[in-house]
């Protein structure tokens, strides 16, 4: 790089943290501005908004009604597998996608639908492996999906599908992101709410922000910017470039909750029972705490974003600020319904319930395609994720746009850009080795993030038996997901 460019990333959710990390790894000076402040000293406030309730790293199996959604998710999952360290799973193994018996009894052939989708996933994975052998992260394409008859301890299951879908622990994700941001020397500024972004005649960007309590106004000037503020990014992009063409955006207001598991659980994997009134997700984060979701209770309302102003609807802003009158009732409804499928919830209580906004380009929640990265202006990008799962693949695209701009402005040689991209997107996490050998040190740091993220501190724990599973997999890196699944089942049986 001839001259070190300064870049500003706005928003420290998963999209913004990865953009900051990858841009820094590529050699840029990076400032990351985040609106929220830390509640706990010694940990940055990362993933405090939508990225604090994420539990699934999709493979496409959850979207059997739209092949494109399935393919987009699988692409995301492959890139995530190549990028993230195993630590983010915290001992969680492969999710089980469950077709409900009651749904079959009511005449909806969900099993056939899932079987057809397994073929979509299998053939797409085979194609990706053919294109590039380094995509073969789940072993042989012929064994990437498997149907099993039931999952012990789940009621109302007609059939079950194992695919590379795998849960994550969002608190452990924040812990590794924070570590990497510090190790790389990213200038992280919390309590910094961006209020305006403008482009000067010299092509540089002026980013204005207020500090804690809105008291002080500051600004920073950057060669390039990356807008990663979820729904807020659309408005920022539109104000910067009124001619930009954005997709129609649907914003679904959702309820989701964490519960305790006083009786523990035998399952170190997510159970995802498909389709609305028959459905429900049980996603244990460890032996003591789970995230749960029941679609009819979760789906509160869906509003199309005003294409000119791109603002959050006033109603949503109000609910997000003051709470929704039905949140508690919807949480109890979810728990009550899910007790019918998952016996370990018998004595569970709600730990915390959340209102969140899901972003989509269609009104149907059964379709979840990648929204992608937008080039807002030369040197300015916007990344909005419809799914966490698509974070790594969009970061790659985001960084390649930044490098392209540096090439066009003469700061980076054309040949150098592809090397910088490959180098940045490698899995080079500088994590402390003690986090694997002494899990308590990781848990202590993760607990601080749980506080910052406003999620139960219990999430900081990993599954018991995790170390054995991790060691087994590390000792045979080429193990297919199928092998890992057997290891984890074996470990559970042994507990
Ligand atoms: C109920 C629910 C469950 C979900 N579950 C899953 C799942 O299991 N798997 C999956 O793949 N996806 C899931 N998703 C989708 C996933 O949560 C999102 O795609 C992803 O977390 C978005 O990350 P982000 O970084 O774009 O946004 P966010 O995590 O929302 O980050 C945006 C950041 O920008 C900051 N910010 C906003 N405005 C400003 C400003 N003006 N100045 C400075 N900072 C600002 C915010 O404080 C925040 O930190 C779920 C979504 C919902 C609603």
Notable characteristics:
ten-stranded mixed beta sheet; six-stranded mixed beta sheet; disordered C terminus; binds flavin-adenine dinucleotide
Explain this structure to me?
- It is globular and about 65 Å long.
- The chain contains 15 helices and 19 strands.
- With 495 residues, the chain is of the alpha+beta class.
- The longest helix has 22 residues, at 110-131.
- Strands 3, 4, 5, 6, 12, 13, 14, 15, 16 and 17 form a ten-stranded mixed beta sheet that branches. A six-stranded mixed beta sheet has the order 7-2-1-11-19-18, with helices on both faces.
- The chain has helices at residues 14-25, 67-83, 101-105, 110-131, 170-184, 231-240, 295-298, 314-322, 327-339, 391-408, 414-424, 434-437, 439-453, 466-475, 481-494, and strands spanning 6-10, 29-33, 56-57, 93-100, 146-148, 157-167, 187-189, 193-199, 205-210, 217-222, 224-227, 250-260, 269-273, 280-286, 289-293, 299-304, 350-360, 373-377, 380-383.
- Helix content is 36%, strand content 23%.
- Helix 1 packs across helix 10 (391-408).
- Residues 473-479 and 486-495 have low confidence and may be disordered.
